[in-house]
Amino acid sequence: PASPLILAIESSCDETAAAVVDGSGRLLADVVASQIDFHARFGGVVPEIASRKHIEAVCGVCDECLDVASAAAGRPVRWADLDAVAVTYAPGLVGALVVGVAFAKGAAWALDVPLIGVNHLEGHLYANKIGDDAFAPPAVVSLVSGGNTLLVHMRGWGDYATLGATIDDAVGEAFDKVAKALGLGYPGGPVISRMAAQGDPDAIPFPRAMLHSGDLRFSLSGLKTAVVTYVNQERAAGRALNVPDIAASFQQAVVDVQVAKARRALEETGAPTFCLGGGVAANPVLRAAYEDLCAQMGVRLVMPPLASCGDNAGMIALVALDRYRASRLMSLDADAQAHA
Length: 340
Ligand code: KG4
Description:
The protein is of the alpha/beta class and 340 residues long. Helices cover 44% and strands 18% of the residues. The site of 5'-O-[(R)-(carboxyoxy)(hydroxy)phosphoryl]adenosine (KG4) has 19 residues, from helix 5 and helix 6.
């Protein structure tokens, strides 16, 4: 049909998510069930738990998604009304991906509709459309999450080149590990940014790794070690930790490097637009720093709404609509893949 209804499923990490998009690109529903509480006590995502929780959640999340879509559409959106089923097939925790992929295959087969496989990272690029309908490439995109840190040159829809990536930890991972060292729990990003708001970003001179590397690569593990070493030294000396200052100084070290590399990427590519994706893109200090950078450089800044920075199926549905139109489908034989 000219105006298809597509259900998209996302299960690459610790969110079970489903969304429905219509032919105009409107998201009729965008439902996320987070498992974070089940992982928090372990200080990070436990892959085996993630898989099991996806299995428990996926039917309910899809049913709820269809209910929400029905309410938004003002008419029933039932399984039988779907024209395609889409799913994230890579990259991510393979045992988690498998749940969404198997479920989507079963649904597509039972409904006799096409199956569409979507790359999770491409989903994060498309999430910028959720905040701004007019968003279009060319653009430089910074993808910063718990598993990824990279700069992408988005030359067109479906035409991407990686400009540089982390050589060790991801930015979100660094937030999570620093939070763990400070005893702040998991996930680290939100709590560190809340603490940092009360602290002095210039209090402790943590390293800005790769700032002068002359390329667009990142390294986060040295910064994480520097924070852990500092914390251990302060504790050994019997001094009370100033957690807000540590959080603010760590966060500023991250932001300074992110902004410097973004500037370089924009200069190298001449792209007129800069945009973001991934859980760390919700960080308020990072967002404010990009506002300043883009204002200075005369570059258009597009940021996903806070709720669409982290993992969601809305962004997967938007990619799926383009795939559907281009008849780029996935075979029922295809498998989940840990790497893109
Ligand atoms: O994209 P996402 O939901 O999925 C994964 O890649 O797992 O990103 C989650 C990551 C976590 O590492 C979390 O600590 C980080 O995003 N994060 C933040 C903030 N909110 C979430 N990092 C910095 N500042 C935030 N406000």
